[in-house]
């Protein structure tokens, strides 16, 4: 692939203590040979985890191509939220745009080109805040276009620009503003969607959830920022299981979704408008609804598939 496509966009790769997953994702990164690579690693929580963090770092230290490598390794355990926030702050202090992967987000090789093409295409379009490789429905109207726009997006393989990251507030201070919450209710339109996200944002704001990604979703939504979502899923999360920090449910409908290859040149939607049908279908298979309605979930998913 390196002979057909040159990856000039910097890549930020977050690793921790899962060397087996790290090796798989790093192999995909090695195949496209980015010119600049940030490797960001948290320190072990306990001494007995030190060997696994060392093994993961040893894997990503094996950069064999011509590459400007920036290693941001912490000696102490910062926790997932602080490590991501401080890591991406350093990345976007240095570069204007980046592709971001974690040690459990395994991309199809075409993911990198997909991100680079769309980062270039929408660089000066303030309506777009994120390019994601994740389509949690697997496919969505792929016979009509190669991507669509969403208020949801996803952070399992994604890309953005430094000026968008500047809107990120890990403390979500604007959540205190009732007007902001009312505007979000208008944005979702659906009562279940709003109630679910209200609960999620309340937990994130009160630091009952150590997720760094909910404040990012919040930042996009309160700025009416759209995510570009591929019509065919390009990234699979291979990290579901008891060793994960957040994705501990191996039986989750979001675990190990099939990936596809993007075709180029990419065909764009005729309008830069959020695909409300996709967002509704997306929310119907969220883990929150899946856990609340385990019996009817398969029927929701089946009905959603007819719209694809």
From TrEMBL:
Gene3D superfamilies linked to this entry: Spore Coat Polysaccharide Biosynthesis Protein SpsA, Chain A
InterPro entries found in the cross-reference section: Nucleotide-diphossugar_trans (IPR029044)
Name of this protein: Hemolytic protein HlpA
